[in-house]
């Protein structure tokens, strides 16, 4: 399968993607490129924002965690009936999201398609042998020094 738009006149390319269309339009265009019969319906549908009880107003960093949780738990039910186990925005929700971050990161790092999964597993076993105080020191140091490693945070 070729990347979207390769060799197709007027196609959306990485260079013009941001200026050409919304996500919905991009998705509809993608469906059309691959001959899906619902592309026109998708393009015309009016988006609705679901009112979910775990919606947040102050959390702007866990979008990926919410996305993965939603993909993991969505069963096709109407938004009002859907429950992925998160509570409303609170300290408890923050704790739940922290656990989910660890869960999803672990799944990604140890997945069979990750060519470094074996090494990640070995490092995790080594880390697990450390005393709790030393583990905490390593974690706090990593958080404090993350700007030096990756300035985009």
From TrEMBL:
Top-rank taxon, per record: Eukaryota
Name of the protein: Ulp1 protease family, C-terminal catalytic domain-containing protein
Gene source species: Artemisia annua (Sweet wormwood)
